[in-house]
Design brief:
This protein is α+β, with helices and mostly antiparallel strands and 297 residues long. The protein is built from 11 helices and 10 strands. The protein has one domain. The strands form 4 sheets. Strands 1-2-8-3 form a 4-stranded antiparallel sheet, with helices on both faces. Strands 4-5 form a two-stranded antiparallel ribbon. It has a two-stranded antiparallel sheet with strand order 6-7. α2 packs across α6.
Length: 297
């Protein structure tokens, strides 16, 4: 049945199929519920776009992020114990944004030191749902004969540290940028059309899909870089880790690590979170530059 929905279809039809599968999974999954009430969703409807698996920027990431950051071709090859040359000529990256709901975002606006229970649950249970979506897309596409992997779930996925802080060998927000889903903020997060409060995910596949256009300016959605009019995230950061020079990951991560005991004791989650710089800011739930430009028109 699934093979019939993809076989012989155009790239645009395949794209619609993939977008539909991802949106259906999030809208119907029992895991997309906050444990407090079971009635409140963790995420709103996803944004989904695609990148060319051999976009040259993936090579640039070896300089921008770290030499060990994987290209999609390397990620898929390692998942199947192949060499990059053994992988099909055309690859695609399916990237998605899971927007955090209004209720959770609004709760975090009130805080100045520690994230709310709803925000922490979204970080903890939301990433479990994100992983389930990754597995779902891998299973969906491999079941009909396509090589597919979710690099974040692979044994080779790693998070390391250098003088600038932690980094991974597969950065979901950087992947989302290549897929045209957003650009980077002063705080280092990705500002999408649904804002900055979200989670990112992706899979790599040899199913050929149409690459989405991306912004050439990696900061074009951020008001600070657009017209120097915003520093809201600087004021919101309790660690003072955001300045006009950007995001100090070491300060940020140190602050969050110091709060993990509290989050574990009070909320029962064993994952650092904060998100204060992603709420009560102009980019919380929209692209503020586009909003500003629409007002001018």
């Amino acid at each position: 049945m699934l093979l019939q929905q993809i076989s012989g279809r155009s790239e645009s039809e395949r794209a619609r199929f993939i977008v539909g599968r991802i949106k259906d999974f999030i809208s119907t999954s029992p895991a997309n519920r906050l444990p407090l009430t079971k009635d409140d969703s963790i995420f709103n409807e996803p944004l989904v776009q695609f990148a060319d698996g051999d976009d040259p920027i993936f090579i640039d990431y070896k300089t921008i992020i770290d030499p060990n950051h994987l290209t999609p071709r390397q990620a898929l090859a390692r998942a199947y114990s192949k060499t990059p040359d053994d992988i099909p000529a055309r690859l695609s990256v399916i990237s998605w944004i899971l927007p955090i709901t209004d209720k959770t975002r609004h709760s975090n606006r009130k805080e100045t030191v520690i994230p709310t229970r709803l925000w922490s649950y979204t970080r903890w249970y939301g990433e479990e749902l994100n992983n389930a979506l990754r597995r779902h897309m891998v299973e969906t596409l491999t079941s009909i004969g396509y090589l597919t992997t979710a690099p974040v779930l692979q044994p080779y996925f790693s998070i390391d540290n250098n003088m600038r802080g932690s980094y991974s060998n597969w950065s979901e927000r950087h992947i989302a940028y290549v897929a045209g889903l957003g650009t980077f903020s002063l705080s280092g997060s990705l500002i999408t059309e649904c804002g900055i409060a979200h989670r990112c995910g992706s899979v790599v596949t040899d199913l050929v899909l149409p690459p989405s256009p991306r912004m050439t300016n990696p900061h074009s959605n951020c008001l600070f870089y657009h017209d120097d009019s915003c520093r809201a995230c600087m004021a919101r950061c309790p660690a003072k880790a955001i300045t006009e020079k950007g995001h100090d990951k070491v300060k940020c991560e140190t602050y969050m690590r110091n709060n993990i005991v509290y989050l574990s004791r009070e909320y029962g989650v064993d994952m650092t979170s904060c998100g204060l710089c992603q709420t009560k800011v102009p980019c919380e739930s929209c692209n503020p530059v586009r909003k500003l430009q629409s007002r001018i028109k």
